[in-house]
DNA sequence: CTGTATGTTGGCGG
DNA sequence: GCCGCCAACATACA
């Protein structure tokens, strides 16, 4: 699930559930999601602190406390949710944060592909995020174009490479390329001035809608609404969609709207 | 059993 | 060094 729009939604959960609240109890149910920190050290670092305004960079969520920062990454199946302390704990609830105001923030994740990190200070945060390119929602047109021009590989690979641009995942990349009319194998540094501009514009529009929805919505008018159909058709022109493997992921595109070459 | 899944990393060969 | 591809990580589901 989690790409930039989902993580932005989790940031909102953190704001409404936990911002300003004291962390009374950190309950690590599965230490397998902790990276570079023990359950005990996590508890000692966070209990008694208060969550302040959280930030997001790409697919990373930064839960600030005024002291150490908790960094969360959701992999493919992670979520953040707000519960009551008495609510039944589910099998995949890995860490529970008991808060003031009778709230409980939960990191739930089925597959444990990523997890939680703790940074003592800003330099610790910077170390953890040092491979991240500019955030896809915050990046300006010029930096976006410069990042792509520096890449000789396929455009889809560049868009989903977090060190080039942070936040886009497999669904968003396919969606944006479809809207921009670009074949996913187009060379990133081979885009015309116009194509680069369109790509940036469509990335912004797609991200804005998706952030509002809290996910890449599987709407009928979106490519994402059809990628899992047995015989998927392009919602714009009715052509049979193509499927293949690119950048290590299942890739869907419309051969008519996104012609190869040129 | 096989293949797939919205993520990331590290290794291999070109 | 850059690039594409693949396995690995852990788990569920068709």
TrEMBL record:
Family matches, as SMART domains: Fapy_DNA_glyco, H2TH
Gene Ontology molecular functions: 8-oxo-7,8-dihydroguanine DNA N-glycosylase activity; class I DNA-(apurinic or apyrimidinic site) endonuclease activity; damaged DNA binding; zinc ion binding
Cofactor: Zn(2+)
Keywords attached to this entry: DNA damage, DNA repair, DNA-binding, Glycosidase, Hydrolase, Lyase, Metal-binding, Multifunctional enzyme, Zinc, Zinc-finger
Domain Formamidopyrimidine-DNA glycosylase catalytic: 2-114
Record domain FPG-type: where: 222-259
SUPFAM superfamilies noted in UniProt: Glucocorticoid receptor-like (DNA-binding domain), N-terminal domain of MutM-like DNA repair proteins, S13-like H2TH domain
One example of a Gene Ontology biological process annotation: base-excision repair
Family: Belongs to the FPG family.
Protein name according to UniProt: Formamidopyrimidine-DNA glycosylase
Organism: Streptomyces fodineus
Taxonomic lineage: Bacteria, Bacillati, Actinomycetota, Actinomycetes, Kitasatosporales
